């Protein structure tokens, strides 16, 4: 089954209206003296636990806002606190 | 008197159910093709029989029983072509060795190009394949039509066909038969297969793997192989190991059975579709992936629509044909579309076989053969060395795709 994500502007909408922006991974490291390993670790290394995580989404098929929400990869559903 | 040979109708279990011991030399997490093949070769080739395969559900529950059964060896990079070519040649050998019909049908694969760029990438892949002695050739649209008469090669489709990459030695293999055959072979060589045993934690001591905590209690081991397909990232997370892998849901479906008309595997990157006609007559077809990481096997109407639109655009004879079933599995995608095969990594005794994306089926037995060698000798076989995790940290992606990947997150 498909599911809905809550856009902060448009409200709950079908997930296929959105683009996935990945989990929240903290601030981009300082580019001064940044070696490829440190950059790669920040950009690509993940620990996808089967539990709720904060992540970014983009409402590409709607209002165009970027927002973060909490979704659980174990259930593939948004979790509202 | 029976007309059958003695034993003909005495159908027994293909593999033995053994009691769960408290200690094994090698524990393998994941009772799919990779795990079972590794266990099989550990016992058969290396004499390591004190091996347990732990499967949370039932063997073949995951990607091994959910893929679209397609096999081929026309990858783009030399490291991959070598491995997949050996893998392709292994199917008939295994059929014989396991004394179990894997239903390998080398009907050939036709991959379609719909743009200048795609044709160029085909040329590169074909040259690499031919260099390594793998049959692969470029077809013009008329030749594609001769191979697959159902194709519409006019300029009417949204993405008109510009060329095809035809790979005669590829085809399909019955994926359940591979799971059952390997389980039969592994069990016959002494491997213990435990279904319904889920791993909940991994014990380490002083930088060494010492055992796993499971739903059936603790099990000690010297060596641990994580071969859990799309769930591998979740198992690695138990050790706080981060990986450049996104587990994504990928959907597949079959139509109602039709008279035989599609005699080859047909695929198209632009349409995000691959299809073959099964022996029952159904068109089995796989789709693109949902972009968000998740461990469910959710299916969506979105992909029924997508597949119907795509298939009927370049094979219009499929209009009005109905889909019968849809299912989903996991694809653990890496940034360079190549797997991560590593050993004694992070902890002594830890072996990783993850990140196959949607290539885990075609590569299964051959990878198991080499991972068994890796585990037995504690040294990476030469053919697996390019797949170490380290490549990412050294900024060396494998060039498996012609363009940068856009799977997973959008950034």
Summary, kept brief:
The complex is a heterodimer of chains A (81) and B (411). Chain A has one helix at 36-44; strands at 4-7, 11-14, 19-23, 53-58, 66-72, 77-78.
Describe what you observe in this structure.
The complex is a heterodimer of chains A (81) and B (411). Chain A contains one helix and six strands. Chain A is mainly β and 81 residues long. Chain A has a four-stranded antiparallel beta sheet with strand order 3-4-5-6, with no helix packed on it. Chain A is globular, with a radius of gyration of 15 Å. Chain B is of the alpha/beta class and 411 residues long. Chain B folds into two domains: 23-67 and 176-244 and 336-393, FAD/NAD(P)-binding domain (3-Layer(bba) Sandwich), CATH 3.50.50; 109-168 and 246-333, D-Amino Acid Oxidase, subunit A, domain 2 (D-Amino Acid Oxidase, Chain A, domain 2, 2-Layer Sandwich). Chain B has helices spanning 33-46, 78-98, 116-131, 141-147, 175-188, 232-237, 301-314, 360-377, 390-393, and strands spanning 23-29, 51-55, 70-71, 109-113, 137-139, 163-167, 171-172, 192-195, 199-205, 208-214, 217-226, 246-255, 265-268, 273-277, 283-289, 323-333, 340-343, 350-354. In chain B, strands 1, 2, 8, 9, 10, 11, 17 and 18 form an eight-stranded mixed beta sheet that branches. Chain B has an eight-stranded mixed beta sheet with strand order 5-6-4-13-14-15-12-16, sandwiched between helices. In chain B, α1 (33-46) packs parallel to α8 and α2 (78-98) crosses α8 (360-377). The longest helix of chain B has 21 residues, at 78-98. The N and C termini of chain B lie far apart (72 Å). The model of chain B has no long low-confidence stretch (mean pLDDT 94). At the A-B interface, β3 and α1 of A face α6 and β12 of B.
């Amino acid at each position: 089954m498909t599911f809905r994500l809550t856009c902060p502007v448009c409200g709950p909408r079908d997930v296929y209206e959105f683009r996935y922006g990945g989990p929240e991974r903290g601030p981009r490291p300082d580019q001064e003296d940044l070696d490829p390993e440190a950059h790669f670790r920040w950009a690509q290394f993940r620990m996808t636990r089967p539990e709720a995580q904060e992540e970014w989404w983009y409402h590409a098929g709607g209002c165009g806002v970027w927002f973060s929400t909490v979704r659980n990869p174990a259930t593939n559903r948004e979790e509202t606190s | 008197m029976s007309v059958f040979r003695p034993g003909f109708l005495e159908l027994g279990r293909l593999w033995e159910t053994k009691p769960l011991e408290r200690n094994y030399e090698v524990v393998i997490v994941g009772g799919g093709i990779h795990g079972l093949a590794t266990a099989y070769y550990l016992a058969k080739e290396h004499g390591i029989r004190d091996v347990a395969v732990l499967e949370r559900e039932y063997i073949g529950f995951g990607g091994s029983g959910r893929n679209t059964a397609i096999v081929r060896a026309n990858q783009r990079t030399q490291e991959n072509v070598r491995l997949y070519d050996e893998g392709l040649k292994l199917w008939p050998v295994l059929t014989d060795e396991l004394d179990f019909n894997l239903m390998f049908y080398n009907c050939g694969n036709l991959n379609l190009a719909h743009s200048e760029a795609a044709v160029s990438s085909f040329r590169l892949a074909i040259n690499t394949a031919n260099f390594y002695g793998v049959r692969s050739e470029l077809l013009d649209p008329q030749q594609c039509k001769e191979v697959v008469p159902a194709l519409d090669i006019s300029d009417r489709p949204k993405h008109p066909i510009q060329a095809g990459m035809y790979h005669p030695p590829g085809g399909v293999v019955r994926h359940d038969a591979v799971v059952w055959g390997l389980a039969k072979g592994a069990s016959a060589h002494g491997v213990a297969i435990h279904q319904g045993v889920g791993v909940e934690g991994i014990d380490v001591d002083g930088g060494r793997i010492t055992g796993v905590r499971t739903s059936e209690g603790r099990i000690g081991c010297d060596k641990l192989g994580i071969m859990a397909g799309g769930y591998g990232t979740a198992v690695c997370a138990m050790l706080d190991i981060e990986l450049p892998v996104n587990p994504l849901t990928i959907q597949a479906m079959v139509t109602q059975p039709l008279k035989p008309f599609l005699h080859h595997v047909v695929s198209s990157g632009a349409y995000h579709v691959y299809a073959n006609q099964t022996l029952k007559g159904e068109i089995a077809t796989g789709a693109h992936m949902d972009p968000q990481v998740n461990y469910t096997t959710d299916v969506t109407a979105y992909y029924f629509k997508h597949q119907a639109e795509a298939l009927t655009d370049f094979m219009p004879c499929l209009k009005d044909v109905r889909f019968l079933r849809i299912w989903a599995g996991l694809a653990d995608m890496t940034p360079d579309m190549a797997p991560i095969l590593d050993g004694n990594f992070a902890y002594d005794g830890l072996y990783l076989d993850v990140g196959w994306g949607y290539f885990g089926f075609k590569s299964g037995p051959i990878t198991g053969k080499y991972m068994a060698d890796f585990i037995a000798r504690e040294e990476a076989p030469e053919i697996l060395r390019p797949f170490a995790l380290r490549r990412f940290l050294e900024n060396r992606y494998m060039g498996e795709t012609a363009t940068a990947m856009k799977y997973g997150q959008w950034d």
